[in-house]
Amino acid sequence: MTHTRFLALFAALTMAACSQATPEQQIVNDAAEALGGADRIQAVKTFVVEGDGTQYNLGQDVTPEASGQTFAVTDARYAVDVAGGRTRFEFTRRPNFTYFQGPQAQRLVQGLDGVVAYNVAANGTATRAPEAVVTERRIGLYHHPITAVRAALDPMAKVSNAHTMDGQSMVDVTTADGISFMLAIDPTTKLPTRVTSRADNTNLGDVAMETRFADYQDAGGVQMPTRFTMRIDDFTTAEYRAAKQAVDGDTGDLAAPAETAKATPPPPPTVAVEELAPGIWYLAGGSHHSVLVEFADHMTLIEAPQNDARSLAVIARAREVRPEKPLTELVNSHHHFDHSGGIRAAIAEGLTIITHQGNVALFENMAKRPHTVVPDALAKSPQPAMIKGIGQDTTLSDSAMTMQLLPYAGPHTETMLMAYFPQQRILVEADVYNPGGQVFMFAGHLLEELKTRNLRIDRIVPLHAKPAPYAQFAKEASMPVPSTN
Ligand SMILES: [Zn+2]
Question: What distance in angstroms lies between residue 165's CA and the mean position of ligand 1's atoms?
């Protein structure tokens, strides 16, 4: 062999080695081939999926374990501008349960335009969504075989960790724009079976956000799944069936509405303190309020809602009201995620949590879960969780204050605690009666409950609206309720 021929052979071998796909690339190439070929997938500009389905009510059902509350979804349309990073999901949904906004169908629009996420409400008002929603929708953009595989084929993407689990081939993908997910493909058909992403949930911390694909059909030379099952960890959050799909058809305008273009950073939480009676203060601000109670030697807070930002602000303000007395306890009204989003913050602040006994297991679990995607106060400053369950009417009383905690199984949730102050004739409740609303879906049930209990109440203090006289409550609670389906 001459020197020249040896070099030529060496070069050919090297090229062969270079063109040999890695196991990771092989999974992506197999998926692309199964979907219609890499060239076809990379050429896809847009797609539209139309159909119907079911949405579940994670974190908002009648008990922490329940999953029976659903919304029937119809006239759903999911349009994607693949290269432009734009998505728009429009759908009509109707609750199968007694929903606080009433039984009527709602038309919702959820959009993503690059790094702008927006919602259009039923009345047509468009609002820009917060950064957490942008993150969730940017992740969601890749929860479709076309976008996932197209992104994985991009030479700028990183593919790693090829492995087999439950008989499926899996690969980790980090897209050119920095979004990570795991792509799984079927060992036989090579079609994608699911995309899983690690995401943050305020209450649950690190979660696996997953979309499963099934029942592929041809649409314009591309294999498209017609069944989608979405999950957060083990909880199914939505199921959709596609009735009609189009690749490179007309998506309509996917640009964010002009009024959502300007970013306004969320205002810092404000806490307005109003004395309701000696030793009882209303800590108002935003959409979720709290109540502070003064005992002889300690202070008790009712409700740590929403998230760290809101709840840490409420706790800090509560400590200023009576700086000489320690704030030691938090009473939680119910498990719904918007009312328990500050439980971890309260634990981080050393408060003992008091809740309905039906919520204890959920809160103990919430206290333990890792929050590494978006570390919160408890992740940064771990504290032991002290959680007390209340299973029957319980009076907390000393020389300065008497507060009764009353378990209430109503149509909104079966694991609720109301706080009743017999001396001040005040009842504190969440979500069951919101004065100033359009419909009062649960107030009638509460009225019956209070009559049965024979409580003497002058004022209802709701954690979502301004305090109202009992007479106003009794009137609004007696208004006819639109029937559920
Ligand atoms: Zn609720």
Answer: 38
Cα(58) to centroid(ligand 1), Å? 12
C-alpha of residue 430 to centroid of ligand 1, in Å: 7
Ligand 1 midpoint to CA 466 (Å): 17
Q: CB 260: neighbour CB atoms within 10 A?
A: 19
Q: How far is the CA of 438 from the centre of ligand 1 (A)?
A: 17
State the 10-residue block means of pLDDT for the chain, 485 residues long.
52 54 96 98 97 96 94 98 95 91 90 95 89 95 98 97 96 97 98 98 97 97 98 97 96 92 83 98 96 98 97 98 98 98 98 98 98 98 97 98 97 96 98 89 94 96 95 93 68
Q: How many CB atoms lie within 10 A of CB 301?
A: 27
Closest CA to 436 of 287, 318, 333, 298: 287
Write the CB contacts of 234 (distance below 8 Å, at least 6 apart in sequence): none
pTM: 0.91
Query: In angstroms, rounded to a whole number, what is the distance separating the alpha carbons of residues 473 and 451?
Result: 13
Calpha distance 213→48 (Å, rounded): 16
Instruction: Return d(Cα 100, Cα 71) in angstroms, integer.
Output: 13
b/e per residue, 401-421, with b = 16+ CB within 10 A? bebbbbbbebbbbbbbbbbbb
Q: What distance in angstroms lies between residue 291's CA and the mean position of ligand 1's atoms?
A: 17
Token pair in block for residue 430: 């969440």
Instruction: Look at residue 203 and give its three-state secondary structure.
Output: coil
